[in-house]
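can u do me a favor
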């Protein structure tokens, strides 16, 4: 399917690895010029180098913490100065926080909110005036299946996911008249560093019978138990949805949170 977005320009946050990298790759392969962002410069430059191997690829990078107050302006300016526009915004940077209300600290709440929600709000505010001028824009916000079916073991992450879904719907209604479509993806278990770094330690603590197993095997068993399709998802499977939502082929889906969780309502 030709997505009809050749020549468009995008920002993908959290694009040095995992789902964000897969989305950037998918957009580049569809002729989109992409600004990729993440904090660790070395890993970001490695990602850029790989993306630039695609024929005709246009990729710029900004090492930035999306939680910083000026990050949104920096990223939008980079897209404008390098590629002349900003048509597609993929708000993907973030991580999970494992724990309930009683074992999440004030800092956990403040930091997670800044990275996941406040950064999204700021990036939308910076990008939308440019999309309005062209009367075309696509925004995709990475959320979690827990925004729809909360799991108390992931309290902070899932409260913020519900807020992302609400931001997505409200903003979609606000800008629909401007040709801008805004959607979220309610992601389930997808095998990335996020899973290994933030979820696995909590699973290991609660599931002592798996203590002798390697990380991949723990993920495989948990996914088989909790996911109707019997496995974790891949970053590429999420990227395919994000690319469609970002494309000219999507003209009628807006304000939605697309569930992408292999049928599961929880993943730990
Ligand atoms: N994987 C899952 O099962 C799953 C499930 C539900 C929702 N999600 C959501 O999907 C998104 C992508 O997850 P993933 O699994 O692909 O994660 P990942 O593999 O850990 O990758 C996260 C990316 O975000 C960047 N990042 C993190 N914090 C950042 C910050 N403050 N500023 C800028 N960049 C930042 C990371 O690079 P640096 O560390 O160098 O900054 C990296 O590029 C996240 O928002 C996550 O919450 C994932």
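np, heres the sequence
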């Amino acid at each position: 399917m030709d997505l009809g977005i050749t020549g468009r320009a995008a920002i993908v946050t959290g694009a040095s690895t995992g789902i964000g990298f897969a989305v950037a790759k998918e957009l580049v392969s569809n002729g989109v010029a992409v600004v990729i962002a993440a904090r660790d410069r070395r890993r970001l430059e490695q990602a850029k180098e790989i993306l630039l191997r695609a024929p005709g690829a246009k990729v710029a990078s900004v090492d930035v913490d999306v939680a910083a107050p000026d990050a949104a302006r920096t990223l939008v300016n980079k897209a404008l100065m390098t590629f002349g526009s900003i048509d597609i915004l993929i708000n993907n940077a973030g991580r999970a926080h494992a724990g309930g209300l009683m074992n999440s600290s004030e800092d956990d709440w403040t930091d997670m909110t800044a990275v996941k929600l406040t950064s999204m709000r700021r990036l939308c505010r910076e990008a939308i005036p440019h999309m309005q001028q062209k009367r075309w824009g696509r925004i995709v916000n990475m959320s979690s299946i827990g925004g729809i079916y909360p799991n108390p073991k992931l309290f902070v992450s899932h409260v913020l996911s519900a807020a992302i879904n609400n931001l997505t719907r409200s903003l979609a209604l606000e800008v629909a008249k401007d040709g801008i479509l805004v959607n979220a993806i309610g992601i389930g278990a997808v095998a990335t560093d996020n899973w290994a770094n933030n979820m696995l330690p909590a699973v290991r603590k609660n599931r002592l019978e798996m203590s002798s197993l390697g990380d991949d095997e723990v993920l495989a068993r948990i996914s088989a138990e909790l996911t109707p399709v019997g496995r974790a998802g891949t970053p590429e499977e999420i990227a395919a949805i994000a690319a469609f939502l970002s494309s000219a082929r999507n003209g009628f889906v807006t304000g939605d949170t697309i569930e992408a969780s292999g049928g599961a309502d929880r993943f730990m």
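The CA atoms of residues 121 and 167 lie 8 Å apart. hope that helps!!
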